[in-house]
Every structure is written in structure tokens, then in C-alpha cells.
Amino acid sequence: MAQQQIELKRGLNGVYFDTTESSDVMPEGRLIYRGYDIHDLASKSTFEEVVYLMMHGALPTRWQLADFDAALKAARKLPPEVIDIIVKVKGAHPMDVLRTAISALSAFDGETETMGKDANIRKGIRLTAQTASIVAAHHRIRQGKPMLEPDPSLSHAGNFLYMLLGEKPDKDTAELMDRDFIVHLDHSSNASSFAARVTASTLADLHGCVVSGIATLKGPLHGGAAEGVMKMALEIGDVSNVESYLAKKHANRERIMGFGHRVYKAEDPRARHLRDGSALLAQKKGQPKWFQILSKVEEQMRPYAQRGICVNVDFWAGSVYYLLGIPEDLFIPIFAVARVPGYVVQVIEQQGRNVLIRPLVQYVGPHDQQYVPIDQRG
Ligand code: ACO
Question: Judging by DSSP bridges, how do beta strands 23-26 and 36-37 pair with one another?
């Protein structure tokens, strides 16, 4: 049968499927959240303030922020049953543990089946706090270390580092993690937020939507790139090896992790905040090597900018986490800690004026196969 002439948009590249008021990713290298430039938010705001902005649509007053912060802090503890599950699956990849634990949380959240914006904000606040607690608890459990009680005197980012690493971070380090969370919070119709929206469009519950997002974030072409970048830096080992390492990669037509983006055709605006953070940490920890190696990779990749392949956020994120003493398999979960409220915002937006997301795919297989009973098949 002759194939119907259909213009395929593989990977939905260039396809607009709806409108949004949450964030805008611009090819020239600009990112805005609800109209505010990411550079203003990253340098002047806190993660808690930006989550409020994203969920409610406006920056909070002092008292609104205090209430919001109190609700986040009140949700930091995990149900004991979920901790038991984390203990049982502790050997799995931390993203698989996170996905499983978030799914399990639906059994212990009194509002799982309650739909609507207000319930989703309340659940979203809890999920934002709980995601950080799951990642930290799992890491402690798998190391055989005691889990730590959340510290209400610490910010969301500071408390996460404390519960993960067992040491209260200094002001600069807590602020760096806070900035990292801000720049990772939302990113228009990225693959994992789109997955969360597809789930939301069936009017499924928020926990299920967040599980979809987390499952999608794990892949190396999305959240997994930061892990790949640090592996690359470790493989390179010394700044003198950068040129030969890249030459081999280019000869094998292999991709360099931390470069390229579906939308940005200039430098990813989030990268600069983590580059600065990486430089600061390298100096503070007296470990300039990784910053030097990655700076050289960035310099050597400059000619690729002509083809729109520029540095992305993941390139510098990995070195920040590494210098903080965070193991590589936690890089994507940290991305998830920041991105979960982004999923919540997009789910609220999707369900606020829902339409089922159900695209078409062109069938190119055979049409008239003759059915052969099982005992007659050769
Ligand atoms: N290194 C070398 N070449 C690259 C890279 C890269 N990192 N990225 C793209 N290219 C080349 C491709 O080989 C292709 O070349 P060709 O036309 O000669 O075959 C061309 O650029 C277009 O690449 P596509 O894969 O078609 O572009 P797409 O928009 O689908 O890719 C993606 C975007 C998946 C992010 C890609 O750039 C990539 O694989 N990057 C490495 C992984 C990475 O860093 N991911 C993180 C993204 S940011 C985030 O999720 C937070």
C-alpha cells in the first residue's frame, strides 16, 4: 500500500503543543520564569521565593514567604513506611529509588486523589520538601550512616546539603546550591516536564505526574549529562590530555556531554552561574584541576558554537557537585530536587485548561499479514 504523504516532526522538534506562562527558553540564550530574567532570580532571590513565584504566579511578600517556607519545612520528614521502602531498594540507582519513593508517597498523602490547583499546590509543597529528604535519606542509608533530622534553621538548599553530607554548609556553599536549584527549577517543555504534562493531561494525580517526570529525567540525553561530564573530566585526568581526548571523540563522532541543546543555539544562560560556582569552589577547596580541565574543554569546543552547539547547564553542574563531595550517581537526583516543583507548576497549568495530549504516529508496518495458528508456525 502506498504510504500517505505526511510531514513527520520526529522528536516533536519545532512543534508547539500549547501555551505557557511559566517559563520561556529563548534560542539566543535567555531564560525567564514568569517574566523575570533567570539572572535576576539567581542572583537576588532564594529557591523558596522562586518556587512561590512559580506556583502562585507572583513574587511573595515577606509574610507570604514566611508561611510558604514554614509549609515546606513542615513537610521535610518522610513517613516511616517510605523510609522502610528506601531501605529495601537501597542498592538501586538513586533515581530509581527516588522514583519508587515518590510513587510510594502517594499512599501516605491524604490528598492524593484530591484534584484542583489548591490541592496541587499543597501536595506540590510537600513533594518539593520530600524529594530532597528522599535523596538525602537514601544516600545516608546506603552508606550505613544514620539519617539526620531536618534542621528548621536551614534553608531548603542548606538543609538538603546538611541531611545529605552530615555537615552544615557555610553561607557561600548553601547559596551556591540554592542558585543551582533556582536555575534548574523549570525549563519550558523539556522532555521530563512534557512527560509530566502528558500524564497530567489524562487527569492523573500529581504524584503519578511527578513519577513520569522523574523517570524521563534519568536519561543521559536529559538529566544524565552532568554525570557524563564529570566522568569525562575524570577520564581526561589532566589538562594536558584535553586536546587528544577531544580529537578522539570527534574522530569517533561521539557527543561531548554538556554541549548542545534542543532550543538554545547560544550559551545556556544557566551555565554561567555554575561556572562561577565551580571557580569559587575550586579555589576554596584548593582543587583547581577539574575547573582547569573543564575550562580547557570549553575553550576547545568554541568552534562548535558556529553550529549552535554551545555549553549547557550540565557542563558546570557536575564539577560543582563533585567538589562538594557528592558522588556522581546523585547528580541527576539533585536535578530532580530542583525540578520537581517545576513539574508541579506545569501539571497545574496543564490541568487548569486541560486537553488530552495524544499525538499521531505514522504506521509504516505491513497491513495484510495472514494469521498463522501457533502450531503451524515454522
Ligand atoms: N557534541 C558533539 N556534537 C553534537 C553535540 C555534542 N554534545 N550535540 C549535538 N551535536 C551534533 C550532532 O552530532 C548533530 O550533528 P550532525 O548533524 O552532523 O549529525 C547535530 O549536532 C544536531 O544534533 P541533534 O542530536 O540532532 O540535536 P538535538 O537538538 O536533538 O540535540 C541534545 C540536543 C540531545 C541535548 C544534544 O545536543 C546532545 O546529545 N548533547 C549531549 C548531552 C547533553 O549535554 N544533554 C544535556 C542537555 S541540557 C539538559 O537536559 C539539562
Answer: unpaired
24 catalytic? Reply is no
User: What pLDDT score was predicted for residue 378?
Assistant: 86
Ligand 1 centre to CA of 223 (Å) is: 13
pTM equals 0.93
303-326, pLDDT tens digit by residue?
A: 999 999 999 998 999 999 999 999
Which ligand 1 atom is the nearest neighbour of the CA of 315? 44
What is the Å distance from ligand 1's center to 224 Cα?
Answer: 13
Catalytic residue among 156, 261, 268, 273: 261
Which class would CATH give 30-221+327-352?
Answer: mainly alpha
Q: Give the three cell numbers for residue 258.
A: 554538556
Rg of the chain in Å (alpha carbons): 22
Class of domain 225-323: mainly alpha
Does residue 314 carry a catalytic annotation? yes
Residue whose Cα lies nearest atom 8 of ligand 1: it is 260
- Catalytic-role residue among 69, 109, 186, 314: 314
Whether 4 contacts 362, CB under 8 Å: yes
**Long-range contact set of residues 321-328: C-beta below 8 Å, sequence gap at least 24:** 321/226, 321/230, 322/230, 322/233, 322/290, 323/278, 323/281, 323/282, 323/285, 323/287, 323/290, 324/161, 324/165, 324/173, 324/177, 324/281, 325/165, 326/164, 326/165, 327/139, 328/227, 328/230, 328/231
Residue nearest to atom 16 of ligand 1 (CA): 253
Domain boundaries, the chain: 30-221+327-352, 225-323
DSSP secondary structure of 97-136: HHHHHHHHHTTT-TTTT--SHHHHHHHHHHHHHHHHHHHH
- Which residues face 33 on adjacent strands? 23, 36
Q: Return the residue matching grid coordinates 573530566.
A: 233
Between CA 337 and CA 138 the distance in angstroms is 13
* Mean residue pLDDT across the chain: 95
Could you give the 3-state DSSP secondary structure of residue 187? strand
What is the whole-number distance in angstroms between the Cα of residue 260 and the centre of ligand 1? Answer: 5
Pocket of ligand 1 from Cβ distances under 6 Å: 221-222, 225, 255-262, 309, 312-314
33 membership: H or E segment, kind and range: strand 30-33
